[in-house]
Amino acid sequence: MSTADEPGFDGPWSFSRPSPIAILGVIVTSVVWLWFGGPLGLGLAGLLVLGVFALSPPFAFGFGQVLLVGAFSEEVAVGILLAESGLLLILLSEYSRRPHSRRLQLATITAFAVVGGIGLTAVVLEVDLWILAVASLLVASTIAYVLHRLERVRLDLINEE
After folding, report:
1. pTM of this prediction?
2. What b-and-e string marks burial along 48-60, b requiring 16 or more CB atoms within 10 Å of the CB?
3. Which helix (H) or strand (E) holds 147?
4. CA atoms of 137 and 145, how far apart (whole Å)
5. DSSP string, 28-66
6. CA distance 29 to 25
7. What's the pLDDT tens digit per position in 28-76?
8. Any idea where the domains of the chain sit in the sequence?
9. How far from chain centre, in Å, is Cα 68?
């Protein structure tokens, strides 16, 4: 974590061109806000665009979270989840600027697809969001466990017991 005394710390103000992943995040979040928020969503989307251009990604993410509170009521949980997936892209967009960042870009897009997919599945299947969240956690836990076991087998760390 960098502080103001360390070289390379710019503070919250970046005034730089956002990465393509951040632009995708702004588009996704803005479309969701327009869809669910109407004219208020349009104003909040405009503020988010200004925030992404004026602030560094972590600060733009936080700014988006504050705007998100004003955009929705609690009954639009799917809209909140879809908007969060766009804000997640903004938060993780800085990784796409690093050298050799193809894996980081893929991980960012995968995280977006998982979070957004949960929301879209909730809309299509008309089920409660918490059911899909629990199912997704179970699937992710199973995949992580299988990968862990595979790694132990490949590194020959399995005992004969």
Report:
1. 0.60
2. bbebbeebbbebb
3. helix 129-154
4. 12
5. HHHHHHHHHHTHHHHHHHHHHHHHHHHB-HHHHHHHHHH
6. 6
7. 889 988 888 788 888 888 888 888 888 878 888 888 888 887 666 666 7
8. 20-125, 128-161
9. 13
